[in-house]
Amino acid sequence: MEDTWILWLLFQTSLLCCTTNQARLMPTFNSSQMFEGDSMSLRCEEDDSSGGWTVRRKTRIQQSQCGHGWGISAGSSCKIGFVFPWDSGVYWCESREGQTSNSINLTVSGGPVILQSPVLPVMEGDDVSLSCRTKTAASNLPAAFYKDGSLLSAQPTGHMTIQHVSSSDEGLYKCDIRGRGESPPSWISVTGRPTTVPTSTTTPTPTTTPIST
Q: Where is the composition biased (Low complexity) (predicted)?
């Protein structure tokens, strides 16, 4: 059931059209999962302030912009002081003309355990830290981490690091703390590093003037 929810989020993300790099959605939090009752803020970093960029979202209930039944809007920023499971969904920035920014998938859990994993795509070659947290106890309890349904690692402190990630590390992750519960799944995306094309410098061929005798 939870895997179906993540697939729904990924499908909704793929439906966003007219994506541009003129604006970028920047969350003030660094995990794609939150506990019910947490707070969060989002803002649109825009190159053109006249574009009228606003934070929008799509949940299982509706698609609307911040301030229309949810969140407190302040220009191109949005804040939710107390999140609920129905705040789970896809969030992005959108201009007046319908252009869209990057998007993030957010899961708000009413359960006892969450997986703290990057909310933004990870750059290929970087290290990724995962933490298995409970709402009521210390966050260093032993935990098992899973990728695509298979056991990845069991860690005594509830933390693990994936070093030098590649495209093969992209997938569906979750964690489990024995006696406490299991987290919802989260999708970790890996993007390639931008390639830099070296600028070629052409050395002009020296011209020689023949000497007349």
A: 194-213
